[in-house]
Each structure stands twice: as C-alpha cells, then as structure tokens.
Prior knowledge:
With 345 residues, the protein is α+β, with helices and mostly antiparallel strands. It is 55% helix and 15% strand. The strands form four sheets. It has a three-stranded antiparallel beta sheet with strand order 1-2-7. A three-stranded antiparallel beta sheet has the order 6-5-10, with helices on one face. A two-stranded antiparallel ribbon has the order 3-4. Helix 1 crosses helix 9 and helix 4 packs antiparallel against helix 5.
Amino acid sequence: MIHRHTVPVLLVAVLLAGPATAAAAAAAGGSPEAVARVEAAIEAARSTFLDGDPKGALKRYREILRNEAAAPGVPIRVRTRAYAGIMELAPYLGDTSLFTTGNLAARSLVSEEAKALGAGSADRVPGLIEAANGYLRSSQPAPERKQLEEVVRVLGVAYGERHASLAVPLVRLANAYITDEAKPQVARAALDRAAGLELPGAPDEARTRSAIQAALGDHAVVFGAAGSGDAYYREAWRLLAASSPDAAVREYGVPMPLHVNIPAEPFASMKGSDYYAAGSVTMTFTVRADGHLDDVAVLAKDTPVAGLPTPVVQAFRRARYRPRLADGAPVATTGEKYTLNFGQD
C-alpha cells in the first residue's frame, strides 16, 4: 500500500475544493437554503471530530446523508462533502471500508456534473478536484491522476494551454506519479509544461514557481541519482525566500514523504503464527540529505508484535523523502517518525 502523509502546503491551499459556484449550483438545481443547512450540519460534524469523538462524527455524517443532504435542491458536490468527512475519519477509526463509499460518491460527482454542466465547462473543476482529493485520502493515485488530467484538459480548453491556472494541477499530477513511482517521463513532462506556463504577474507567482522547482527536485530524488535534486531544491528555496523567508521555512523546513510503499503484510503476533496483531507501530529513522532513509528501527508499539516483517523494513529502506532544507541546502534529519496502523487479520 502506498502511503502519503501530506501534500505540499501550496497545493493544499490552492486545490481544496470549495462550495459550488453559482453557475454549478444553478445547473444542478441547487437551493441556497438547502445547501446552507447541509454545510452547517457538516461543520457541526467536523467539530465533533475535532473535539475527539470520531465515532460521534461518523454517526452525524451518516445522519446528514440520510436527512439534510438527501433533501431536494442539494447538489451532489455539496453531498460529497459529507462523504469527504467520512473518509477523513477512516484512519482514526481503523475502517478503510469508509474510503469505498467516498470514492463511489466521487465517481457520481464527476459523472453528474459532466452531464449538468457540460464536459468542457470550467465550472466542473472544483468537483473534479474534490474527487481527486477523495482518491488522495484513500491512497489511490491512479484514479486521482485521472481526475487531475481532466482538470488540466478542461482548463486548457477554457483558458488556453499556457494559462497560469494549469500550474498547480500539473504539479499535483506529477506528484501523483512520483508518489506511485510510476511513469517518470510523464511526470517530468507535466513539470516541464508547468515551468513553461505564462506565469508573470499571476497571483502567488513566486510560490507557484517555487512549487514547480521543488517538484522537479522530488522527481529527481525518486527517479534519479542520489543528490540530483539538490539544485532544484536550492532554487525552490531561493524563489520563495525572496518574497517570504518565513514561508520558505514553513514549506521546506521539515522532511516530507514522497514515496513510501508498505506491503500489505500483517505483523505476526507473539501469540503464535496463527495470529496477527492489530494496532500500530511507530518507526523511527534518519532522512538523509539525498532523501534516502537510514537507521530504520521500531520506536514504539501499542501491541505485542513478534517482529518487523522483512518486507516492511525493505520498504522503508527504499522509501524516498524530500529532505529538510536549511537556508536552501538539503540537510539530514534524525529522529523522523512514521506510524503504521494495521487491523486484526
């Protein structure tokens, strides 16, 4: 299973799908009053989760889908926000089946909006990104890429093939390939295209150019020789630090997982070979300046596992991280942690 703990801050800020546009809501028969009721209920459910009660939040989200979200006049994009909330709970409840219902909703969202708005409408973009975010949460890079490719196609038709709006979707598309350690040439082509867009004068131009350079560094770490991402990372830091040194520290001051492919092999229990342990194991390791990992070990466990399966150790040794940058230079970071959660088999 491919694990992705994070997405670059810039991409999260730009790509989180918001409420439906007026045109999209009208095309889908949306009622402002009905939408407001659903959004208020979703905020209340999320508050329940943030207060430390994921089971209570799950119950509330399911009530929303049965009641408020099922009312006439609620567009599917608003309904899928409740599914997105459910998917967010999955890791905390140890129930990956919750991802399935969310991804089914994502497929319905894309299909219904294509029919209501037209396949080439730019008003589809927030819904496509919402679907991509759902696949990201459930670590499914292939369908995530499909949605992002459609975003790039729609924006290119609507605004032109060199429009600045294509930059962030192209970087995220490349990131989905990098995380999956798949199709390096396709990922690089997306990044080269992003670098050639007409960005001068665009909002957040420095942050966007910095994100493109950082992604080129990530591509080099995952697919290239050790140290081949250094120049890209230095340039990413320079571009962002020139406009905001604090932003550069926030964006690049901690290591970030790029590719961690953990095999779906359970941990053997100390009860014997017929049992598998449920719970979590926290790994610790050093992220080297070249993005490779050293000193992989078990830091903590909340269940009596007999040992760490060899494929898991090997997976961590093959993992790749974006290294921490200090004044633009990649540096090693000791004591990094990664928690594996697994269920009873």
